[in-house]
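Following the same procedure, sequence and fold were stored together, as reproduced here:

>
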Amino acid sequence: MSMAVVGMIAGMALGFAGYFGGFGAFLLVAALGAVGFVVGRFLEGDLEPGDFFRIRTDRRDRRP
C-alpha cells in the first residue's frame, strides 16, 4: 500500500472523527494514530529504542 493511500485513509478517519465526535475525538484518533505509527516502525525494524533515548553529556566537556 502506498504512502498516499495510507495518508488518505488516515485523513478520512480524522475527518470522520472530527465531524461525528467533535474535537476531542479528533485529538484521540490523531494521538492513537501516532502511537500506532511508532509501534509499527518498531516492529518493522526501522526504529530502535536508542533513537529516542540518548545519554546526555556534561556541557563542561564540550568545546566550542
Remarks:
- Residues 3-61 form one domain.
